[in-house]
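Exercise 7.
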Amino acid sequence: MVYPSLSHKEAYINLAVIGLGKLGLPLAVLLASNGNRVKGFDNSQVVRDLVRSKTLKSSEPGLIELINSPSISLNVVENIKEAVEGSEIIFIIVPTPSLPSGHFSNEYVIDAVNNVGKHIGSSQRVVIDIVSTVMPGSCEGPIKSALELSSRKLVGHEVGLCYNPEFIALGSVLHDMEMPDMHLIGQSSPWAGEIVERALQSIVKKIVPSRRMSLTEAELVKIAVNNFVTMKISFANSLLQASVRLTEIDIDVVTEALGLDTRIGNKYLKAAAPYGGPCFPRDTRALAALYQDLGISDSLSEATETVNKSHVDFIVNFICKQIKKGEKVGILGLSYKAGTSVKDESPGVLIARGLSELGFQILAWDQEIIAEGINEIDKHYKLCETSSEVIRDANFVVISRVLANNSIVKKQLLNSHRPFYDIWRQF
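Solution. The predicted structure, written as tokens, is:
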């Protein structure tokens, strides 16, 4: 069923956010900055202290400035009991690690639900909103059972259960939460979905359509959206490989024309680097795992991942043709995208490893990783302090993603006359 979106911001809501990580903290801060009374809790004492003292380091654009704003009233509490007391909504945003099978683990979600449930007051009406990505069937199954057992209440009247995954990308979390394409809400009952929608509408900067549906429908939508996007990326990259072999083809001309067809569209139809990060790869594998469970073909998801992996090899081989054996290669950009230090399955790391295994010496630099003071050691590359150091010492430089200071680095490269390869522009 389609429910109308709220057209205005309602009065404040008492709520809590369990899990102050890369997604939970921005959500808590945005909710607090828009008039809601927010309590935050994280299992890590270090995280709680850093947030409370406003000494947290983060490369997420705008986050530190918002945390340090005097108008923010985020109450970081010491235990879940404090977080639950008086709250109308409890947002649970904890890890759901991928298992070898491709399924997501519900271990941390269920642990949080159990801890929340046992502290819900006898007369308290509250909604538990699962934001962490879970497999279809999780909320109606083990999560609902855990909530009812721990709270000693039936989901529906006094306790609501919602599934509300965010469609965001690290490096643009605040923007994506304030300007989403839609609000996706799986609900155990209409009143539960209504209160979650009120909270979400309080932080947006435009009118946002809301789709409220069953819990399992929302779970399927979440991984289906990311699968469709990765399929589109792999399709564009397969055309890129074909265009290189056909020669004298501008792949951007091809994909731009394709995107003019309204059935296709231009979003994510840019042929360049393979997809990476903490969501796209694992959501693609999760849908394949779901299909296997249901006894239907998982060939679309499998093909999408196969093309993505082959594209790394394609780029590595393409680079090898531009350089001499044993030369020093610079990699600018190790995280999977600008604005974050996360390197999960990032093109920069995968390309660095591929070249290293072929005998090349790799010098790497990443603005976000250096800014957060991350001191890492990787046998496949040497992490340099500045982009200038990489450009000075490497024989050939690869720009593996769009950089936050792209124009400055490009100017450095042009002035150095160092040969370079920009994955996003070379073709």
